[in-house]
Amino acid sequence: MSDQAAFWDERYKGEDFAFGTAPNEFLVSQAHHLKPGLRVLVPGDGEGRNGVWLAEQGLIVDSVDVSPLGVGKARKLAQGRGVEINATIADLLTWAWPHNAYDIVAALYIHFFDSDRPKIHRAMVDALKPGGILILEAFRPEQLELQKMHRSGGPKTADMLYSKAKLAEDFTGLSILHLEEATVELAEGHRHSGKAAIIRAVVQKPG
Question: Using N-to-C axis directions, what is the helix angle for 68-81 and 3-12, rounded to 10°?
Fold first, then answer.
């Protein structure tokens, strides 16, 4: 087992869900992009809260995570909710990303070092069909201070945190439909709880 898989297995052990079972609020706010029958990829879906919600909206869901324990809990969550997801165990850095396969990619709180981030974001875009939509929410550098005060989660190093400048550069040549920095009150399980500094983006691949 890789170090990353072991790290996340440790986070996901136990009966409870580290980030809860409710979907990300920003994802829900973008429901106008979602239609039954669309294909969606949820990379880094962890215990499946977002992938399962998308399946409940009638989308065809591929959920991918490095943690065997997380993927197992995602499958169990889907079964309990009466929906199907295709949940796969894979390291996103080495995974054979599909090309032109998805109508939507939902990237919620998946962070990569600056050395890997542009490559991963390019893989997300390449995975979209022409005209496809990427929905992203992540922490920004200001979170380093807020996580100390509020225990609201996120990476502990600045080169894993995202800014408007980084995202604008990663998604050059695409239509940026939405890009904002915000401070919010997170209520996503015990690991995302409290005041947090976040960034949100909606990006469209040229049709």
Answer: 40
